[in-house]
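User: Working on a comparison across species. This one is IS91 family transposase from Anaerotalea alkaliphila. Can you predict its structure so I can line it up against the others?
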Amino acid sequence: IVTGAGLTKTMQLHKSSRNFFIPVRVLGKVFRGKFMEQLQKLRSGNKLRFPSSCGRLKDSRAWSGFRNSLYEKTWIPYIKETFNGFGNAIDYLGRYTHRIAISNARIIAVGDSQVSFWANDYKTGQKKTVTLSHEEFIRRFLMHVLPCGFQKIRYYGFLNNRSKKASLKLIAKLTGKMLSQARFASMQPDEILHVLWNINLKQCPMCSNNTMRYAGRTFVFRN
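Assistant: Here's the predicted structure for IS91 family transposase from Anaerotalea alkaliphila:
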């Protein structure tokens, strides 16, 4: 997610134009340059591992030719405006950035040698039961674990962890708006959802009547 504003070197807020955000072609060239620069650093530091299919790239001449071929290509970043503000973008990304490989609710049974769970059959659009051995289940689960050194989410600009708190306070002061924490301090969770993303928890998803009330929570116990 790229913000539509940022702090300048003089700590002033600079907003993007309503009709123009960023030049896509320029962004592609900048990304290509940054990516290739870091790739070359890894190569120079002997930190790249070449499988047998790419073994020829260990040779300096072959590597130079390969790198030049990448520079000659047009790198096209895919940028798209959200359909309905920022709410749906956050909802979409949140499904992937803060979830695990499989939730407990999908696990049906765990036996001495097998695990059974629910899965979506994309051919039929229906749910189906999948049974795997313990070893295969663990193997598939570990495929979702990021390699050492990889980070799922990186924050930059005024959202970087080092200066985020001070930057957000400054932006709130410059724009004359309250920070989210202060704005929503007196609101209930359902009220916050309604203000931010127009999600009405009191509205029935079937008949659309505002008659739903929170009664409590219950838990399903598994044998």
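For your comparison, note: Residues 183-222 form one domain.

User: Helpful, thanks.
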